[in-house]
Amino acid sequence: MAKLHIDRSATVGWCPVLGPSLLACGTVAGAIDMSFSTSSVLEIFKVDFAASDASPALAGHVQVPERFHRLAWGNKPSDATQLPYGILAGGLADGSICLWDPAAIVDGAGHNPLLSKMQKHSGAVKGLEFNGFSPNLLASGAAGGELCIWDVAAPAQPSLYPALKGPATGAPGAAAASEITYISWNRKVQHILASTQVDGATVVWDLKKQRPVITLKDP
Asked: Which residue from 165, 211, 205 is spatially nearest to 186, judged by alpha carbons?
């Protein structure tokens, strides 16, 4: 039974910081609503599970030039006074990754909530997740099986580690790896993560070795 309802075609992310329950919704790529609108918006809702109203209150929103494939909400950095609600990252349809200050969206403090826009991938960013041990590390994946690790300790000027290429798992002699569709960091080992690909393969990466170490795929 649904307790709360938000009428949106969106990809979502929960705020990991202790405090009010905040839910981010970004207009999902490929969806068509009744108005046939092509606009995109990032919204943050304040969710009160004890309230009788089934519709959470809109805490803030911002217009975005591209639609979303993935949202990732990272924990706050050590300097919590500047980013009390952490960092909100969006993987967009044009291959870019945007970082926002969710506190600026919620509080409407008057300054631009967009912290930075990173452009590395050639296709839509469908894999995106912050590292649970080191919240300054953000992994992203897109077309061609390319995996990127970003250091967002300075969110206005993120740095990029050398991109890693996944294995080609298609027909014999295939030159390119398949598009990454999802990324998940290992919850026990900091430098291990896994990605799924559009061809049905799952790849396990070891960042210390700078390469994929296991590929799982049905025959």
From this structure: 205
